[in-house]
Structure formats: C-alpha cells, structure tokens
Amino acid sequence: MRFALSAEHTEFASVLHDFLSAGHRNLATIGITELTDPVDLVVAFEELGHHAVPGPLVESIAVVPALVACEGTASVAFPPHVPYAPEADVYFLVEDDTLREAGPGAEMTSVDPTRRLFELVGGPVIATDVPAGRAFDLGVLTCAAQLVGLGRAMLEMATGHAKLRTQFGQAIGGFQAVKHLLADVLIGLELARPLVHGAAVTMSPRDVSAAKVAAGDAAHRAARTALQVHGAIGYTAEHDLGRFLTKTRALVTAWGTPSMHRSRVLAALCEEVPSR
C-alpha cells in the first residue's frame, strides 16, 4: 500500500507553507482549526512543525475536538502526560474514559521555554464514555507529524549552512563526511514520513506508536546533525536553529516517551503472534 499524498493534500501543504512563511499565524483564517480527518491533520501539522509554530496546537486542534465541542484555545491532560497549558482559554483532564473540567496548577520544568508545562487540577465531570483512546492517538500522531516537519526544517538549515560555510578553501558540504551525515538524516525522515501518513490512514495504536518512534528518532538525528554542521553558532540563542532544537527535544518525549511507544508496538505485535 502506498501512503503518498494526494494532489489535493500536496496543494494544501503548499498553501499552508506559503501562509506560514509570510508570517501569518491566525490558523482559523485558513481553516486549520476545522480539520478532523487524521490525514488532513498530519499534512497540516507537518507544516506547522516545519515552521516551529508555538502554542498548544496538538491539544487545541487535534485532541480536544475529538472529545468535546468547545470554543477558544484548549489544552488537555492525559495523566501522567503533562499538558502545554498557559496559552489556553479552557482546560480539560481525561481520567480513563471520563472528561473533567480542569485548571492549571503548578508549573513544571520544560526544556523548551516556548512550551510551558503545567499540572492540571481536575474539576467537575463534563462527560463519560468519551473516546479517550482515539483522542490520545490523535495527539501522538500529530506530534509525530510535527517532528517530521521539524526534522525537514533542520535538514534544510544544515544543508544551506554546509553550502555557505567554507573550510580548507571549500564549502564544508563538499566533504564526504558531511554529505554522509546529511544523507543519513534525509533517509531517516524519508522512512518516518510514510509511517506517519500510514498511521493516519489506519489509526491503529500500533501504527501510531511506530510512527511516533520513527519520527522522534529521525528528528533527533536531524537535530544532532544540524547542530554539528553549524558548529558553535548552532548553540547560540540568536540563531533560528535553537528554536527547532529545543522544540524537537521537547516533542520527542511529549505524548509518550519513545520507550512507552516501543512497548505499545511490542505488545501489539505479541498479540498478533498465534500461540503454539
């Protein structure tokens, strides 16, 4: 089965790319906040990651609408996962299949200063028997799509820098060792991307977790390589790469750690193996 994007999705990604490149951030004007189909969401969130757009986007656009109808920016917590909270207008807490109103409590430590984390304190019950499993998987899936977009952006930055930075009388991108580093990043991203698209089609927990692991690994490799290629300038706060590095580091463990998702994949595979 192929998981290539349709012509419509490719055009949508291009329009969103141009919209974000122009500095626009009101996503409602382009219809992003109305998306519900997982494939549409994946296309959108890859571009949002590619531009490192801040805010509780996963929670507000993908997860909360799968649980309850609400107005404004929302955030939601699936304990023990800590939510991106302070920019939200409304807060929710999911306990098993029960949805509660919530409010922000103590602030948590975050590796990304633009992604502030808070504990949520549960309040009155809003609904029971909510589709918590699907909502959580939408959060995992869209986070994975963001990671693919972040990885693409960092690869582009590293490639551009390698073409301009000279050493020993030539651009560093001409050295085979640098070429191999960048090629490995591209291979990882090209392997992760169809896993994310495929998971959007099946929406099975196994496929979603596999996509998150692959996207996280690929983005992490992209971050390490981009930092290595940039050298000391990559560490500085004034360079754009810094925003992508910290966001990647935060999202790799957001919506479940790599070990948690590997365990989900293993459990699903073990269930599929017939007993002897």
TrEMBL record:
Protein name: Acyl-CoA dehydrogenase
Pfam name, any one: Acyl-CoA_dh_1
Domain Acyl-CoA dehydrogenase/oxidase C-terminal as annotated: residue spans: 135-268
Keyword Flavoprotein included in the entry's annotation: yes
Top-rank lineage group of the source organism: Bacteria
Gene3D superfamilies: Butyryl-CoA Dehydrogenase, subunit A, domain 3
Organism, as annotated: Lentzea tibetensis
Keyword terms, alphabetized: FAD, Flavoprotein, Oxidoreductase
